Amino acid sequence: MPINKDSNAKAYWKENLRYLTILLTIWFAVSYGAGILFKGPLDNFRLGGFKLGFWFAQQGSIYVFVILIFVYVRLMNKLDKKYGYDVE
Amino acid sequence: MDVQTWTYLLVGLTFSIYIGIAIWSRAGSTKEFYVAGGGVSPLANGMATAADWMSAASFLSMAGIIAFAGYDGSVYLMGWTGGYVLLALLLAPYLRKFGKFTVPDFIGDRYYSDTARLVAVFCALLVSFTYVAGQMRGVGLVFSRFLEVDINTGVIIGMIIVLFYAVLGGMKGITYTQVAQYCVLIFAFMVPAIFISLQMTGNPIPQLGMGSTLADGSGTFLLDKLDGLSTQLGFAAYTDGSKSMIDVFAITLALMVGTAGLPHVIVRFFTVKRVRDARKSAGYALLLIAILYTAAPAVAVFAKTNMIDSVVDKTYQEQPDWLKNYENLGLIAWTDKNDDGLVQYGPGSAFIGKPAYDGDKRTALGARAVTNINPGNQNELYVDRDIMVLANPEIANLPGWVIALVAAGALAAALSTAAGLLLVISSSVSHDLIKKVVNPNISEKGELMAARLSAVAAVCVAGYFGINPPGFVAAVVALAFGLAAASFFPAIILGIFYKRMNKEGAIAGMVVGITAMLLYMIKYKLGWFDATLPSSDEWWFGISPEGFGTIAMIINFVVSLVVCHFTTPPPQEVQDIVENIRIPSGAGEARGH
């Protein structure tokens, strides 16, 4: 049933794009947001010996990047299953 | 055993391992040569990608660059890690599903055009050669520094080793040697980092030690102390930096997008079995890279604080032993400009150019005499940035084998990156040029031979540039990222996410993007258009050549979309390919035809 197959693929792609938008927004917020654009104001807060903006720029953003990829892997594996794309 | 013996022992041992792996995993087919047979596990691929990615510069120089740049150094930390998020989310799974051998393969098929393929081959070669020349030089430097051989001899030893496993094993050999090289380099980086963190703050985890209080019981936070020391000496506070915000933004973005567009990184994701493995191995790669990239800024803080504390405003006699050792190796120099007998350190370079030692002559105070001209500031101390990593074992009073380990680690980092780049160069020539354009009827055996021969040729060219570095190589290596950002990234993204993108748009975008980047680079980095290098006041929007990749990428996107809008949409079968790569199942194996 090509039409069904088609709409299945469309729905899958739409959900994928939604995940991408959310994850990339976080990607942007921790690096360009917290680490660069709002670094100044965030530096008024502290995380132990770190000023917060500086911490995001040299530590925090990298930790979040790693987490983002693994969250993406999990979400996509679930999504593949939901749409029946998990079988080779 | 002394340091020298340990170094020969550890370097010899690791090299035998690499060569053993190369013999065990030699490639028998083009598929094994280009993509390691396509059956690499996600973790192994993650380790190989991490080793491929982290060059001698990441290993030896990055912590030093950050130590002297403070907050400004964040551009490298975020830029060279954040790109993996883009890779994992926007490129790797789809390119894996597409299932070809190289990046120009994707461009050529997706844009149904050999012109597009040739433009992509040109960009891939340009990016890879600018990058690899710097790596071979790095191999030579590491050899000469640790094994006390001539720098050119070092380049030649490096060439022979890389030749051996890249030509013999292709991607398969490279992948498994890179797995071993990752283990060596991360161990070599973390051991001194952990001990120096313990020494400075009492915390064994460098990433946490960086934000802890000093171990001297004063209760002062390490970063506060370094901020104080920096401002006292006349620098900006360490955690503030001095670059403009827009430039920091642009450089970070150019490095991120460039990372995601580097062909030798992208091609690693063709070697795994399934689409889900491609996603997962991008996660592993970043996790493994992040271990070094979060420790490096900590090492920077430890080493810088230690240096200022133990060196500045002391007499030459009071200087620590490591300083005198590295002075003997030519990485440190001091002239007493104000004749007070104390070492002063401050903003500006102490001398113009590298220190020119006056033979073995010593000044009355004991330091090596230098003949450089004083540029007219108060700074008396020349420090090579690489010392921040090199001297760590000595600063932390670690035994000789740790110093030897750092040497083996630096060599692992340099060799693994060089090998990965050489493979991209050879497959661009044998697969994208010979097989796809010049002689499509070439046999499997013939293509494999062509791949090996082009790898040999690429090693020789890279070695030549390593021995006779054209003055501009060092200046442009950092710009390889800008070139990748300006060319590949938009073409690949649009090829996946915009079904209507056609060949006219993609070709125009790549050509205009990379030309804009090259012109800006030549004008503002190399200064070939003017009698003198234009000052930073003339930069567009205050963006440095390093950050211009961001602008060139935007230009590429705009040109692509505008041209695409006024030309015919791609044929139906190409649109079907795009539909197909968006779905993960049925990826099959990477194939050449």
Tell me about this structure.
Chain B: Pfam families: SSF. Chain B: The chain crosses the membrane at residues 6-24, 77-95, 116-134, 146-167, 179-200, 248-270, 282-303, 401-425, 446-467, 473-498, 505-522, 542-563. Chain B: It is a multi-pass membrane protein. The complex is a heterodimer of chains A (88) and B (593). Chain A has 88 residues and is mainly α. Chain A has one domain (6-82). Chain A is built from 3 helices and 2 strands; from the N terminus they run H-H-E-E-H. Chain A has helices at 2-37, 39-42, 52-82; strands spanning 46-47, 50-51. Chain A has a two-stranded antiparallel sheet with strand order 1-2. In chain A, helix 1 runs antiparallel to helix 3. The mean pLDDT of chain A is 90. Chain B is an all-alpha fold and 593 residues long. Chain B has a single domain, classed as Up-down Bundle (Sodium/glucose cotransporter), CATH 1.20.1730. In chain B, 67% of the residues lie in helices and 3% in strands. Chain B contains 23 helices and 4 strands. Chain B has a two-stranded antiparallel ribbon. Chain B has a two-stranded antiparallel ribbon with strand order 2-3. In chain B, helix 1 (3-24) runs parallel beside helix 17 (400-438), helix 4 (56-69) crosses helix 17 and helix 20 packs antiparallel against helix 21 (503-526). The radius of gyration of chain B is 24 Å and the shape is globular. Chains A and B meet through helix 1, strand 2 and helix 3 of A and helix 5, helix 10, helix 11 and helix 13 of B.
